[in-house]
Amino acid sequence: MSKKETETRTPVSKLGKYNLTERLAARFTVVNDSTLQGYGDDAAVAFFMDPLSVSAQQLALEGVDFDLSYVPLKFIGYKTAIGAMGQVMAMNAVPVQLLVNIGVSQRFFVEDIDAIFEGISALCRRYSVDIAAIDVQSSYTGLSLAVTAIGQAEPGLLTRRSGAQENDLICLSGNVGAAYMGLRVLEREKRVFTGETEKDALPNLNGYEYILERYLKPELPSALLENLRRDDLVPTSMCLLKNGLAHSILSLCKASGKGARLFVNKIPIARQCFEFAGTDPSLSPLVAALNGGDDYEMLFTLPLNQYEKVQKEYNLDTIGHICDVSSGCKLITPDGQELTVESPGM
Amino acid sequence: MSKKETETRTPVSKLGKYNLTERLAARFTVVNDSTLQGYGDDAAVAFFMDPLSVSAQQLALEGVDFDLSYVPLKFIGYKTAIGAMGQVMAMNAVPVQLLVNIGVSQRFFVEDIDAIFEGISALCRRYSVDIAAIDVQSSYTGLSLAVTAIGQAEPGLLTRRSGAQENDLICLSGNVGAAYMGLRVLEREKRVFTGETEKDALPNLNGYEYILERYLKPELPSALLENLRRDDLVPTSMCLLKNGLAHSILSLCKASGKGARLFVNKIPIARQCFEFAGTDPSLSPLVAALNGGDDYEMLFTLPLNQYEKVQKEYNLDTIGHICDVSSGCKLITPDGQELTVESPGM
């Protein structure tokens, strides 16, 4: 860090914990009528019209879940919150409140914490959720973030992983593998920056904006889910794509006691994934799609009789169908080969 | 760690993340009918009869919030969960579900994580709450825990910090300062153990069991709160005692726009606090009560006309009363002196 940068940085101790949380809270205004009590009391309170309270917590730790040498602070809080909200949305629930706890070591300044909350604030506006708790505490080393998302759902619309039925269509809310490829771009640029690669490999993010954004600033398919609810299309099962398509389809099949057939040439993969993979023979767009992770899209199943509607009105990617458990979970290649879907730790 | 200890320890990598969380989840059975979806899906789902969803998140980081050299692992998860649940109870809500995320570095083994969840499991039985999510992830250094408590409340019973009225009685659910004194006992024993104190000072926890337990394994006043609800006694305001009595009364007065008078000789302090303070002239039971923290009791206010009932049926400690904001927040000594209540960072 240069001297100039240090000069414009305020130690947390100068402001004090109370003033710091007040300052952070001032960024946010309550947007949901259902938020009865936001920041400023012991706990958050929501008045839900729907009787189901749906919640998920995400913990993000520096050095494991993110690397601050190439991920700007404003994306850290944003992405952690996206993870928590995405899990709530995967139950077909609508996130309403976020609780944010953050642990910072002495190398973080007030301006750093501001940057983290700038990202969370953008997310709150984008998805109409309220920050209902903020706590900043000391950390011995590094940055830790815990975000909980609380939402509400109608009982009849709840989607679990366990509801998939034989012959159901397997759908994706968007393309997969892009975030993983974006991460690899950032990792390559870090190696160039730290001199680990040959000296003529210049940093180059040009042409990879889409996959970088998918890694740094993922979006959740909230509009699609809202449209499905409006059209009374309730997925029979649903799962957030966090650890790759392979992990998600295996989770869904296991919970539902079913098998699946996925068609390789139906899996949507963005053009930039192929372009970037073309620069490095160790990269495979299909492997990125299956095992890359960080997609934050939804994997879900719909009854076969919805096929026409899904095609005509939604232009959704249907990548395969659910079958009997004895058939296992298979990937069908364009030339008709059957490969068994695998994911580490499943 | 001795060789023998190492031999009975299983690396997390040997079991794998999936098997580990399944193993941890197997400790718990769902006890609340309202828990529609516990561990095993994207998010936790609760069906609440009362329309208010009340939630609080607690983050605990090794080296700052706890010191594993003198706090056994089984108390770490327990206490973090107590913190989250206590905040929910401070709104006069009933905690129903817990979400637990834990980050562990390579120096932690499966048996360590088991110990953490053993403590959480004891708490779940004690307070009839369900573990509705478990996630274990890698940490670069040390142990990190995030626990969210989700509860429900009736709108008419909700208690905020901001509702205190002039002349209200200020009540405590139990004595204060004991946890801080317990911590000091542990810190002294650690110094003896590491040879920092004179060599004739032998480790001695005898006679301090009560204050040690208040630090290691605090209890929440759930029965008292339930009895108050049953008797239609709704506190006008309430606040969890986490950072000391001074911090809590100042928070409550600030939120309510009021002042307070607290009487020193009415503040309940356990006998062992005085006994331990007698061994070390740097310790003051009153300072421990005011600024010690970790009490996990409730500070709350009730209308003056409930005084007789509170005295006769509840044997509650009433330590003062709310007054006009211009009077400030004062501590009255037995000889009639008025001291201004202060707390760091307020």
Plain-language structure description:
The structure is a homodimer of 346-residue chains. Chain A is globular. In chain A, the strands form three sheets. A seven-stranded mixed beta sheet of chain A has the order 8-10-7-11-9-12-13, with helices on both faces. In chain A, strands 3-6-4-5 form a four-stranded mixed beta sheet. A two-stranded antiparallel ribbon of chain A has the order 1-2. In chain A, a hairpin with a 6-residue loop joins strand 1 and strand 2. Chain A has helices spanning 3-7, 12-15, 17-25, 73-89, 110-127, 178-193, 209-216, 222-230, 245-256, 271-277, 285-291, 307-314; strands at residues 35-37, 44-47, 52-61, 94-104, 130-138, 143-153, 169-172, 237-240, 259-263, 298-302, 317-323, 329-332, 338-340. Chain A folds into two domains: 3-156, 60s Ribosomal Protein L30, Chain: A; 161-340, Alpha-Beta Complex (Phosphoribosyl-aminoimidazole Synthetase, Chain A, domain 2), CATH 3.90.650.10. In chain A, 51% of the residues are buried. The two termini of chain A are 42 Å apart. Chain A is an alpha+beta fold and 346 residues long. The longest helix of chain A has 18 residues, at 110-127. In chain A, helix 4 packs parallel to helix 5 and helix 6 packs across helix 7 (209-216). Chains A and B meet through strand 2, strand 3, helix 4, strand 4 and strand 5 of A and strand 2, strand 3, helix 4, strand 4 and strand 5 of B.
